[in-house]
Design brief:
Pfam families: TsaD. This is Gcp-like domain-containing protein. The protein has 2 domains: 110 residues, 2-Layer Sandwich (Nucleotidyltransferase, domain 5), CATH 3.30.420; 88 residues, Nucleotidyltransferase, domain 5. The chain is globular, with a radius of gyration of 18 Å. The chain contains 6 helices and 10 strands; from the N terminus they run βββαβαβαβββαβαβα.
């Protein structure tokens, strides 16, 4: 089995975890962000020290690859690349919306075999980054920036029970308003949930080119002038 360092910075939450032989052996989370630039390095140093003192070799670094916060993804990716270069480790990209589905499936929160999963990340106002997946995490509809209306997911809802979760889901439920729509609360992307996806990708040889990998931002970054300067 492998040793994988996982880094998750796609939202305001900053988390780092380490797995070895399929088990989580280190985990740190901070939910008070965004403060990735202040604490991510400390979390990573602690994780690497943990395995170094136990003579465990790092095999790969998994990083949440987006969509999500432009700044958060950029910070996480930069850190991951630096570790890969310094430790001669492989780089694994874990799609953020698939990551959101892991605790839903592991927690057996979905009963129906043909149910669909819609992980959502808040993109402000009534817009979300969303994807439609089946229970095997096969893509039913690709990732889009959805401005949610009553019709956005109607075709899926008319045919399936559909479970919505992530930090963009709650604000949409009154608008979706369908008897087949279900909200699963308190689902956030965390590094400790990356291992099943990361280990599968590593076993399949689905690793990234460290030099050329960039996160999936979905939207271009737009700089804004602080209000106090206007």
């Amino acid at each position: 089995m492998s040793c994988i360092l996982s880094i998750e910075t796609s939202t305001n939450i900053c988390s780092v975890a380490m797995s070895h032989d399929g088990e989580c052996i280190f985990n740190q989370e901070n939910h008070q962000g965004p403060n990735h630039n202040e604490i991510l390095g400390t979390f990573i140093d602690e994780a690497l020290t943990f395995i170094d003192t136990r003579n465990i070799t790092l095999d790969a670094v998994a990083v949440s690859s987006g969509p999500g916060s432009y700044t958060g993804l950029r910070i996480g990716t930069s850190m991951a690349k630096g570790i890969c270069y310094g430790r001669d480790a492989k780089l694994i990209a874990v799609p953020t919306l698939e990551l959101l589905a892991v605790p839903v499936l592991l927690g057996e929160m979905v009963a129906e075999d043909d149910a669909l999963l819609v992980p959502m990340l808040d993109a402000r106002r009534m817009e979300v980054y969303a994807q439609v997946l089946d229970r095997a995490l096969k893509e039913v509809r690709g990732i889009q920036a959805d401005v949610v209306t009553a019709d956005t997911y109607r075709a899926f809802l008319d045919a399936h029970e559909v479970y919505f979760f992530g930090n963009g889901a709650a604000k949409c439920m009154d608008i979706i308003a369908h008897p087949h729509a279900h909200l699963i609360e308190n689902i956030t992307p965390l590094a400790k949930n990356m291992f099943p996806l990361a280990e599968k990708r590593l076993a399949e040889g689905r690793v990234e080119d460290v030099a050329y990998f960039v996160p999936f931002y979905l939207k271009d970054f737009v700089a804004k002038t602080p209000k106090k300067l206007i």
